[in-house]
């Protein structure tokens, strides 16, 4: 059988009727506002409990000022640490309200703020106690670590958090494989757990009133429950109740693999085109590390399909999977789906392997002829993954499929190839889609390319909340 025949068969399969679920309703905007308000309420409650516990009265002396300020910094740092864990605990209502892209950004901001306040807490508390002690700064530090209950554990927990923060800096992340970064990032849970005894045994504001005790135990308990239920319990329960297994593995292109999975467990997953899962394949070493992959075909209630480029150990393993391998899935996640659509017309823009969730969207989105345009940015025709399926789907559904091919423009942050360097990014967008301002724009690709598309779409008149994108950078 020739390669062209195989491609033709795949294209025909791509356009064959699939049982579609009912359209996903838009997530109410107030969900996001409510979760943000809840986060700020937690911080306000922390400060209020500090004031009620005499924190303001302690500011009258230099030593008291340092100590009391250090305490409130530590309390807010602890609250922020727990909030950032909740943000990434895969709580469905939080994730649906924000989307993983925005959650990751807020998580990073909250995390660095928490770490900064934690360091301020350590320094201020030490200086405050040293101001009223004959031991001096170093003697006071030694006394804290050795003689105060829970401080050795808190010191170890702080060291674990330092590792997480250092490896989360962009320059450090670029030097780490995803698998290594993911393993190191788990130390955040260790760090959070190790500081709890310190708060219980030596934190006056933690236990000085019934309200404070209930608040802090409630916050810790809620965080632990969110992680255990949504990061561990739900995926394991789904897998044990209704196993999901690999059905088919095929090479889509050199260095690109498509995997199809199925089983009774797929029916219980409310997945929509454009969303992604955290995938674990139980095929041997490395199974414990989850990798985020978008689904590359509209869900039909029977199977799920992913298409991924080999960019690391996890994705390279896909090519060696065997049918029958058990699969653990967390998800679905992400807001790159039809539920956030606000306009009748839609522009789908994908770069490289980022075209995969958009291919699924093209298949699933309700549309009339001319409503949907697909722009597929590739460096060369050989890298146009799923191009045959995209063209076949576009033809069948009355959409327009446009390939933008060529090397990037040197010395310019742009979504265009060098042969279009005479155009601005917004001008090129308007040439392809003259009425782009009346579209929802879905974008997926590498970070820099998505930034360029986002900027061009806004310049071309697209409403800010009509641009939908999902980042997978760690």
Automatic annotation (TrEMBL):
CDD domains found in the cross-reference section: FNR_like_3
Record PROSITE patterns: FAD_FR
GO MF, one example: flavin adenine dinucleotide binding
Domain FAD-binding FR-type: 239-339
TM region positions: 30-52, 72-89, 109-131, 151-169, 181-202, 214-234
Cofactor: FAD
Chaperone listed as a keyword: no
Subcellular location: Membrane
Protein name: Ferredoxin-NADP reductase
Source species: Phycicoccus duodecadis
